[in-house]
Amino acid sequence: MARVLVVDDEPGVQESLRMLLKEDCEVVTAGNADEALAAVDAATPDLVILDLVMPGRSGLEVLSELGKRGVPAPVIVLTATKTVTTAVEAMKRGAADYVTKPFEVDALRIKVRRLLEQGALEREVARLRDEVARRQQLGGLIGRSAPMQELFRSIERVAQSKASVLIRGESGTGKELVAQAIHQLSPRRAGPFVAVNCAAIPDTLLESELFGHERGAFTDARDQRIGRFEAAAGGTLFLDEIGEIAPAVQAKLLRALQERVIERLGGTAPIEVDVRIVAATNRDLEASIEAGSFRSDLYYRINVVPLAIPPLRGRREDIPLLVDHTLARMAAEGARPVEGLSPEAMELLQNYAWPGNVRELENAIERAVALSDRLVLDPVDLPEAVVDGARVSTLRDQVRAGRLGFEEAVVRFESELLREALEASDWNQTRAAEQLGITRRQLKLKMDRYGLAQPGSDPHLPV
Ligand SMILES: Nc1ncnc2c1ncn2[C@@H]1O[C@H](COP(=O)(O)OP(=O)(O)OP(=O)(O)O)[C@@H](O)[C@H]1O
Ligand SMILES: [Mg+2]
Known about the structure:
alpha/beta, Rossmann fold, 18 strands, binds adenosine-5'-triphosphate, binds magnesium ion
C-alpha cells in the first residue's frame, strides 16, 4: 500500500485526512517541520500532503529541504484561500499540486490517487528502462544480438566459478573486455585484475614476468621482483595471446596451473598462489597442437570453459549500438558533437565485413568524426575500403544468405550503378549515360523507374 505523509499542525486536519485516505493508503502524520523530516528519513513516503502555515519552520522550508534531499515523492500543499500567492511560490519550489482549505473531500482524493498512480507508473518505466539497458550491456561489452546475449549469459555463469576460461575470437572482437567482465562479475572482483600480453614480451623475459625473480637470479636481476602470478593473488590473471608462448614457458605455466604453486627465478621455495586464470587467443590452438608448437596438456588446463566471441559480421544488429556508444564516448572525451549517421552511411556499415571487428569499426567512426564537419555523417565520411567493400559484398552476400531475392538484387545493382555514374558526373545525364555506355534516353527511363533524382530537385519536373 502507498504511504502518505500528512504534515499539519492542527490535529483536526490530520485526523480528517487520515479518515479520508485510509482506504487508499497508509497514512503517517507529522505536526511540524522537524517531525516531517524525521518521518521522511525513517521511511520514504510515496506522497506528502503539506500545510504551508505552521509554527516554527514553514511548509515552504520543508519543501525546499525535501528537494535538497532528493526525495522523489510528489507534494500537495495545503493553503488557506487568502494565501494563494504562497501556493504559487510552493509550486515554483517543486510542489506537484495545491489544495485550498477548507478542502473539498472528493477533489483532494482524486488528486492523491492521480499522483500516486503517476508515481507508480514512473517507477515502472524506470524499472523497464533499467532492464533494457542491462540487456544491451555487460561490463564494457555492448550487444543486443542473439549471439552476444548468449555470450552475456555464459559470462555471468562462468564468473561465479573459479574454472579456467579460454576466450576465442578474431582480432578486435573484445577478448580483453570479456576477460574484464568475468573478473568484475566474479566473487574475486575486489581482488586485482592483472593482464599479461604474452605476445608482447620476449620469450626470455616472459618467465620472470610471470613468476618473478630473486635478486641475482640472472645478470640484470639487481632486485627481487614479484611476478604477475603473485600480483594477481586473490584476483584474476588474464593471459592474452596465450598461443604465442614458447614451449619452455608453457611447461612452467602448466606446472603452476596444476600445482597452484610457483617458483621465482633463482628462488628455492615454492610459493602458493590463489589466482583465477582467464586466457585468450585468436589462433587456432588445435592446429598449433597438431604442429607441435602448443602443449595439449596445457591446452586442456586452460580450456576448461571455452567462450567464443562471434565476429562482428555475424551480428550486424549490434553495429548501430556500437556506433552510438563510440560517438557518446568520443563526445564525453571532448570530440566535436555528432548527432549520428545518415541511413545510407549506417547501411554501409552494416553491410561491410569488418575483418578487424569492433576495433576497426571504432577506428572508422573516430576517423569520420575527425575528418568531417557534418553533424550527421554521410557515406563520403567513411573510409573508402568500407564503402567499396560494403557496396560489392552486400548484394551478393545477401542473395547467398537468402536475405534478398534475385530480382530485387538485380534492381538494386542496376540502380546503384546508375546512382554512382550520376553522382560522378554531377547529375549530368549525358555524361553519366556515356560513362555507362547506354543512351541518354535509356538512362532517363531507368532513372524514372527507380525514382533516381538529384538530391534537392523535384523528380517530377522535366529536366
Ligand atoms: N562488444 C563490445 N562492446 C563495446 N566495445 C567493444 C566490444 N568489443 C570490442 N570493443 C572495443 O573494441 C576494441 C578492441 O577490443 P579488445 O582489445 O578487447 O579486442 P581483442 O579481441 O582483445 O583484440 P586483439 O585480438 O586484436 O587483441 C576495444 O576498444 C574495445 O573496447
Ligand atoms: Mg586483445
